[in-house]
Structures are given as structure tokens and as C-alpha cells.
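Customer escalation, tier 2.

The customer says the design service returned an amino acid string that "doesn't look like it belongs to this structure." They asked us to rerun it and document both sides in this ticket. The original C-alpha cells are below, unchanged.
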């Protein structure tokens, strides 16, 4: 039986860096499959609820981990990746375990979408997705990033195979995404 041809790409970047924009663009323009570690949690919750919170997701993840072990989410994702082919992008690499999981695949790459903290803060504040985004100060934002799941993102980014600097306009970001995906496909 022949091995399916698959390329696995992990996208890493701090909140507000543009990684979701890159992921969506790669899906729309290049037809990559998009996945996240949280997909099975969201699907499970959506069976029971039309709307659910990040807290609900975190609770379910905790319960799954307590019951089935700390590798439960990567195991679920591995099943999906192993059944896929082509280019698969896993968006939201934040932990070293996520990095090593992606790199466990033979044809795997990490792309770091990088943007300075001040610009990310301004984008998050302007998006206003969360209820406290409008009242958050830059100092609070800086402190929260040091104490959150985001703290390892810069160090993981330094180990990335490709870096996309998101310091210009949207068109430049998408051109960089095109360049990187084409380079990966040539390998």
C-alpha cells in the first residue's frame, strides 16, 4: 500500500499577528486543508450547544486530558492528518508539544507569522472581539502575554522553517504567504 503524499504545515504567531488571515488565504487560494487542535472540542460542543465559550472549550479539554491523557488532542488531530492528503495547515501552534507534533511528520514545516507587540495590541483592540478588548491597556496586554499560553510563541518562532513578517499591508502579507507555500511545494 503506498503512503499518501502529504505536507503538514504548522502556523505559529501571537494573537493579532495575522496567522488566521494567512490560514484562510492559503485555504481559499491554494486549497490547503485547515485544522486546529481545538477542532474536535468544538465539534463535540456543537452537538449539544449552538453557542459555546472559550471557557467551555477549556473545560472540555481539561476533562478529556484528565480522563484520556495529555496527548488526547494531538491523537485526535493525528487521526485526521493521517487520513488527509495534500497540504494540511494546522493553525495555532503555541506550545512546544504542538511544534514537536507537527515536526513528527516527514514533510513538515513551521511558518511563523510575526508582528510587533504594539501593532498586534492595536489590531486586537480595534477588532473588539472580546468584551474587555476596549478597556485593555498596553501594559496589561504585555503582562497577559507573559503569563499566557502565548509566552512560548517567540521562541517557537525562532525555530520556524519560514518567517512571514507582517509589517506592511495585506497585499504584502498575502504575497509572502504565496512565496512560502510555493517554496514548500517545490521541496
Amino acid at each position: 500500500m503506498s503512503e499518501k503524499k502529504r505536507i503538514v504545515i504548522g502556523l505559529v504567531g501571537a494573537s493579532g499577528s495575522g496567522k488566521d488571515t494567512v490560514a484562510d488565504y492559503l485555504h481559499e487560494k491554494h486549497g490547503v486543508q485547515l485544522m486546529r487542535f481545538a477542532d474536535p472540542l468544538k465539534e463535540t460542543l456543537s452537538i449539544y450547544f449552538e453557542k459555546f465559550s472559550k471557557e467551555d472549550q477549556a473545560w472540555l479539554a481539561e476533562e478529556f486530558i484528565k480522563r484520556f491523557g495529555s496527548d488526547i488532542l494531538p491523537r485526535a488531530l493525528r487521526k485526521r492528518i493521517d487520513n488527509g492528503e495534500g497540504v494540511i495547515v494546522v493553525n495555532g501552534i503555541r506550545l512546544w508539544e504542538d511544534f514537536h507534533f507537527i515536526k513528527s511528520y516527514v514533510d513538515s514545516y513551521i511558518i511563523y507569522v510575526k508582528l510587533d507587540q504594539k501593532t498586534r495590541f492595536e489590531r486586537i483592540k480595534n477588532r473588539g472581539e472580546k468584551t474587555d478588548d476596549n478597556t485593555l491597556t498596553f501594559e496589561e496586554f504585555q503582562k497577559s502575554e507573559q503569563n499566557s499560553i502565548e509566552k512560548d510563541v517567540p521562541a517557537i518562532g525562532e525555530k520556524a522553517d519560514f518567517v512571514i513578517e507582517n509589517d506592511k499591508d495585506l497585499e504584502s502579507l498575502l504575497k509572502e504567504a504565496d512565496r512560502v507555500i510555493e517554496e514548500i511545494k517545490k521541496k
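Tier 2 assessment: The sequence is consistent with the input. The domain at 6-186 is CATH 3.40.50.300 (Rossmann fold). The CA atoms of residues 75 and 111 lie 22 Å apart. Sent an explanation to the customer and offered a walkthrough call.
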